[in-house]
Write a sequence for this structure.
């Protein structure tokens, strides 16, 4: 009932905040590293400045989406743990 609903709200808020705080920078670094490798393999002639510009743009464009996905998974898992 009401206690379960309150527990769900609390765990959603905590899991969401924790996931967002802890995932952003590691995700950005990981995305940049993997994209750099892929771009260097596919476009070996890409200059340093062009490569960095492409990496920054692609990382920035996808970072919020990646964080939202991680946040959602963390929240879903936390809710599942509360229900068990």
């Amino acid at each position: 009932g009401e206690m379960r609903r309150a527990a769900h709200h609390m765990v959603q808020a905590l899991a969401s905040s924790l996931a967002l705080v802890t995932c952003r920078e590691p995700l950005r670094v990981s995305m940049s590293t993997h994209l750099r490798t892929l771009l260097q393999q596919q476009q070996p002639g890409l200059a340093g400045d062009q490569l960095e510009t492409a990496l920054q743009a692609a990382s920035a464009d996808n970072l919020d989406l990646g964080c939202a996905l991680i946040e959602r998974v963390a929240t879903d898992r936390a809710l599942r743990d509360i229900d068990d």
Summary: Residues 5 and 34 are 40 Å apart (CA to CA). The longest helix spans residues 2-42. DSSP finds two helices and no strands in the chain.
